[in-house]
C-alpha cells in the first residue's frame, strides 16, 4: 500500500514583507522552506512506514527549484520523491493545483494501491486550505480534515479511524480507505535528518513529471485553468495602540487598568 | 645458589611477567581506539611533561597537592632504592655502594633514609585525610574516599617503608652495615638488646615483606586507579597542545561514522585518558552540572569509558557487539543521555585535571553521535537546529532584522581595504533586546576612540558556536565554511566581537577552516584603547560595589582574565570585587555548550547557584562580558527577587557610562 504526502515549497513567511507601494510580496532573497504543516504530513507518512512498512512518496508541484525541498524529504526517509513541474502548471490557483496533484496521484494508483494521501491543513503563503479537499473530491477519496491523531487502521476492512481537532472539542471519525487526510501540527513532532541520509539524499533521483507525462488539457491547468484572480494583497491597517498607566512605578494599578480596558472592549470574560 | 635466592628469582620472574602482561593487556585495549596524532612537536610535549608531571603544576594548585608532590618525588627517589633492593635480591654480593665513590654511596643511603621517612609521613597524612577529613569531592556513587582500594595502596606503601627501616635497622644492629642512615640507625639503637639470631631473623622477615609487598604493589598498579603512576607522565606528554575545547573536524562522506556510540570509536588518547584518571575528584568538584545535582559527573564519564573499555574492549576489537552499551540507562560503564546533554562545555574539568585528562570533548563526541547518527536530542533543540539552518540565528528571527539595532548610527558597512575592524555583532548582540544595549555601548566606545570599524549588516551569519558544542557538526561545518569564505571575500583582517562565543569560534574553531586573523573580544579592544590613551574615561563610582563574573569562553577557553578587570578598573577607578570562585576556578552561568537553548530538567538551576554566590559579596553591579551570562545573571536575580537590588551590566556598558 502506498502513502503519499503532498508537500509545498513556500517562502519563509516570517521573512516575507509586503511592498507598501506595489502591494506585492517581496520575495527577493527569501529562503524557501517546506510548508510547516506539510512536514507533519510527511512525518506521519514515515511513521506509518516505520510501523507497517508501507511505501512512501512525496509529491510536490512547483518550479524546478522545488527539488531542494524534495531532497529534504529524501533526507528524512521517503522512498520516492516526484516533482510536478511544467511551464503550463505555473500561476495555478487551488482548483488548478488540486487538478494536477490529483492527476499525479491517479497515475500512481494505476501501478499501486494508494491507501492514504496526506496534506497539510493549509499553507503559510496561500492559506486557503482547499487543495487537500480538492484532491479528495476529484479522486473520490474519503476526506478527513484537521486530523491530530491516527487512532487505528483496519487493513482487513480497509478503514481508518482518526481524531479531528475542532474548536474546543475533538471528534473521532472512521472512513473507508483510500482517504485524504489534512493534518494539524499537534499530530506529531517531525524528525530531524541524520547525516548519512542527508548525504544520500544529495544523490537520489528526483522524478520529474511534466505535462507530457500527465497529459492534461493545458487550458485546464496553471494560470489558464485558474478562475481565481488575486486583485490586491495588502497588510491591514492597524489602529495605533495607546499607552495606559505606568507599569514601572505602578505595576498593579496599570495591570487593573489594562484589565478594565480589555473588559470594556469585550476582549475578556470574567 | 642459596635456596632463598632461587625462590626469589622465581617469584620475581613470575611477578614481572604478570605485571608486563597486565600492562600489555591494557595497552592492547588502548590500541583499539581510533588514530589521533599526538606525536608532533616533541619539545613542546616534553615541556608539558616537565611542568605538569615533574613540577606537578596542577596538583599543587590545591593545598593538599603538596602532600602528593612530596610523595611523587619520594617515589622517584625510592625507585632507585628499590631497584637496588631488587638487584641485590637477584644477584648475590651486588652492592650499589661498591660501584660508586664512597661519599656518593653514603649520600644516596642518607637520601633514601630521609626520603623514606618523608614518604611515610605523606602516607600517614593521606590516611588521616581519607578517614577523617575527606572532602566531599573525593567520593562518588561508585567509590568512597576511604575505599578498600585507596586504603590498601596506602597501607602497602606504609608497609614498604616500615619494612625498609626494619631491614636497615637490623643490619645496622648486627654491625653489617656502616652508612649514613640516621633514621635506621636510631631504630637500630632500639633493637640493640636483641640477640644476633633474632636480628638475623628480623632482617630476613623484613626483607621478604619488603620484597613481596613491592612485587604485589607493582602488580596491583595496572589493575587499579594507581595505574596513573604508570600512565600520568606519558599522558602529560600526549596532552592536547591546543585548548582541548576546539574539537576536531569530522569528514562528511558516504559510509562515514560520526561521533562516538561505542568505546572503540574514541581515539586511543581518549582511552588512555580513561586509564589515567586518579579519581582525585577535582573535576567533579568544579563541574556546574554536578554541583547542581544533574546526572553528569565528568569524572564518572571518564570512569564509565574505562569500565566499558575493560568490559567490551576485546569483543569490540573482534567486531562483536559488547555486552555493555556506552550510551543508555545509567549504570557503571554506561552513560545516560541526560548526562550527555547536561554539559555546559565550561571547561572547568579540562582545566583543573592534574592528569590533563580531556573530559568535555568526550561528551561532545557522544553528542555528535546522538545528533548526527540518531537525530536523538532534547525536544527544544529541533527548533534551534532548524532556526540555525534556515535563518542563521538561534531565535529564528528574520535575518533582515539583523541591523535593526543600528538605526541611529547610519551606514556602518564594512568596506574592504578601508575599514580596520570588522565588528562581528553576533546574534545576541543583534537580536536580543537587552544585549542590543551592549552593542550600542561598544559602537559608542569605538566611535569615541576613533576606531575605524564596520559591520557585515544583513550579510552577517551566526558563527555556529551552539550547534558545534551541541554536536551538530554537519550544520556547523556549513556555517563555518560560509562565514570563512565571506570573511575572506571581504578581506577582513581584524575582528572585534562582543560575545565570547563568537570570539572563541572565530578565533579558534575557524582556524580549522583556514581563517587565521586577529580576533579580539571587546574587553581586549577596550583595554588596549584605554591603555594607549585613545579612550578618555572619567572614572566614576556610580556603579557602587562592582563584582565581575568570568565567562568560560573568554576566561578558561582563552585565558583572558585580566583584560575585562582592567577595563572595569579604568572605568570605575578600582578593580572589581571577586566571586569566591573566579578565574580558572570560575563557575559557569549555565548557558554554554548550547545549554542556553535547553531547559534544566533536574537538580537546581546553575544560574541561581551563581547569583547566590554573587550575593555573598553584596554587590550593587554584577558585571559580565558575555550575552549569555547577561541573560542568565539577570534571570537568576529576578528569580531570587533581587532584580531591583543588583544591576547586571556588560563591561562595555560600564565603560560607555564613563565616557560622559
Ligand atoms: C498570497 C497568496 C494568495 C493567494 N490567494 C489565492 C486565493 O485566494 N485563491 C486561490 O485559488 N489561490 C490563491 N493563491 C494561489 C495558491 O497559493 C496556490 O497557487 C495554490 O496552488 C495552493 O493553495 P494554498 O497555498 O492555499 O494551499 P492550501 O490549500 O492551503 O494547501 C493545503 C495542502 O495542500 C497541499 N498542497 C498545496 N499546494 C501544493 C503543491 N503545489 N504541491 C503539493 N502539495 C500542495 C499541501 O499539503 C498543503 O498543506 C494565492 C497565493 C499567494 C502566494
Ligand atoms: S565542561 Fe563543565 S559542565 Fe561539562 S563536564 Fe566539564 S565541568 Fe562539567
Ligand atoms: S578526570 Fe582528572 S580531575 Fe577528574 S577525577 Fe580523574 S584525575 Fe581527577
What secondary-structure arrangement, pairings included, does this model have?
The complex is a heterodimer of chains A (270) and B (660).
Chain A: E1 2-6, E2 9-11, E3 17-18, E4 25-26, E5 32-34, H1 36-52, E6 55-61, H2 67-76, E7 80-84, H3 94-111, E8 114-120, H4 131-139, E9 142-154, E10 159-166, E11 169-176, E12 179-183, H5 195-203, E13 207-209, H6 211-214, H7 251-264
Parallel strand pairs in A: 1-6, 1-8, 6-7, 7-13, 8-12, 9-12
Antiparallel strand pairs in A: 2-5, 3-4, 9-10, 10-11
Chain B: H1 3-31, H2 42-54, H3 65-90, H4 96-99, H5 102-132, H6 148-173, H7 182-191, H8 196-220, H9 228-237, H10 268-276, H11 282-286, H12 288-291, H13 298-317, H14 337-342, H15 348-352, H16 359-374, H17 380-391, E1 421-424, H18 427-431, H19 433-448, E2 453-454, H20 465-469, H21 473-489, E3 494-497, H22 500-507, E4 518-521, H23 522-531, E5 546-548, H24 562-572, E6 577-578, H25 606-615, E7 621-624, H26 627-639, E8 647-650, H27 651-657
Parallel strand pairs in B: 1-2, 1-3, 3-4, 5-6, 5-7, 7-8
Helix pairs in contact in B: 1-8, 1-10, 2-9, 3-5, 5-6, 6-7, 6-8, 9-10, 10-13, 13-16, 19-27, 23-24, 24-27, 25-26
Bound molecules: flavin-adenine dinucleotide (FAD) and iron/sulfur cluster (2 copies).
Residues 277-283, 298-299, 302, 352-353, 355, 357, 359 of chain B line the site of one iron/sulfur cluster (SF4).
